[in-house]
Amino acid sequence: MIEFIQQLRECLINCLAHADYVQAYPSIKIEVFDGWFHFLNQGKMLVSLQQFRTGGDSRPRNEIIMKMFRWLGASERQGYGGPLIYTTTASGVVHMPEVYTDIEKTDLRIWNIDFADSYPQLEDEAKDILRVILKSNISISVSKIREGTGFSDCKVRKWLKILDEKKLVQKKGNGPSTKYAIRETSDEKITQLQIALDNLKIKE
User: Fold this and answer.
1) What are phi and psi of 40, to 5 degrees?
2) What does the alpha-carbon distance between residue 116 and residue 94 come to, in Å, rounded to a whole number?
3) Domain span(s) for CATH 3.30.565.60 in the chain
4) Does the domain at residues 2-111 carry the CATH identifier 3.30.565.60?
5) Which fold has domain 121-182?
6) pLDDT digits over 129-173, tens only?
7) Taking Cα atoms as reference points, which of 115, 97, 114 lies closest to residue 39?
8) What pLDDT digit, counting tens, does each position of 194-203 carry?
């Protein structure tokens, strides 16, 4: 819960300190939904999405607003708000943050419900299979998924095919050795790399 509050705080700071207030459209918008939050501000990010995810390069559009947050103790590590937003959800338990930015706006969305529930269009049986794969934390066989869900072999394979088509899981291997894992996005891979680098710095 504390980690999510920190994530929420960084999203709010990012939204307000990086908005282009000279640009009239779109206006700042912060919305709360059942299970997720939406932050929208005018203006394109001044760093690339990769820099935002890995951190170390701070270019606030509004330095006075950023200083105010620092004085309040809300912004401590300059240039590391982006990594904090990503690493708090890197375990895969919840949906990874989604960030879009273009010449007009920056759009950021975060979730506080589990990964499976962040796809409301999925049937409950498909969500159960996703949870079993997530819980294993490694590639998992059809037989293990069957044991974890109590579903028949036919039902497990049917839903795995659908989840693969939706690019939520990925198939590894062929024949009896076939296993399934949650499909990682480039955002997740970069985040995992950032965590590994941070751990090395701590050990040093």
Assistant:
1) -130, 130
2) 8
3) 2-111
4) yes
5) Arc Repressor Mutant, subunit A (1.10.10)
6) 998 988 887 889 999 999 999 999 999 999 999 999 988 898 888
7) 97
8) 444 454 444 4
